[in-house]
Amino acid sequence: MRIISTKLHGLHIVEPDLHGDNRGFFMESYSSSKFAEHGIDFPFVQDNHSLSVEAGVLRGLHYQLNPRAQTKLVRVVCGAIYDVAVDIRKDSPTFGQWVGVILSDANKRQLLVPQGFAHGFCTIAPNTQVLYKVDEYYSPEHDRGILWNDPSLGIDWPTSHPILSIKDQEHPLLKDTEINF
What angle is formed at CA 103 by the lines to CA 101 and CA 109, rounded to 5 degrees? Predict the structure, then answer.
């Protein structure tokens, strides 16, 4: 397993070891002991799975407030996404900065998104399936979001006309959202 640090402290790209032959491949997508060897030790409690039928579906930017904040380990099992994490830790020197990474069934990369980050993704292939682990259960009363196209963030999404849920269309700007990190 290879752990690649990003410019945002705590946000990592994970490249699992892949063992392939003429039959296909095998990989460990998650091993608590191997992650712990790299200093990544989160007690994941829930797996989530989404299907986006069309390319251009944008989900996000989502996070949960403390004390129900979530760390996420995100991967794609079919298709591809442009995955984005935004640092929303108020005292962080990189507050409001973001990183975007392509995750796909072909590259097998994963993104570890720690607490204190807003997260979202845009599908870049039809019939994309995303799996992600979280270390805290979903809590509707702690669920928050930031508007996907907040001009203060300047995220370079792969579409200017995404397919959005009503909820994601109505998120506030970063300057107006509730943050307790």
Answer: 100
What positions carry a catalytic annotation? 62, 132
pTM of this structure: 0.95
Number of domains in the chain: 1
List the one residue out of 21, 13, 24, 161 whose CA is nearest residue 74.
13
- Residue 116: CB atoms within 10 Å: 25
Q: Which domain holds residue 141?
A: 44-176
Q: Which residue matches tokens 């928050």? A: 144
Q: Is 18 within a domain?
A: no
- The 10s digit of each residue's pLDDT in 42-84 is 999 999 999 999 999 999 999 999 999 999 999 999 999 999 9
Token output for 9: 């402290």
Say if CB 102 and CB 110 are below 8 A apart: no
Instruction: Show the DSSP H helices in the chain as ranges.
Output: 32-37, 166-169
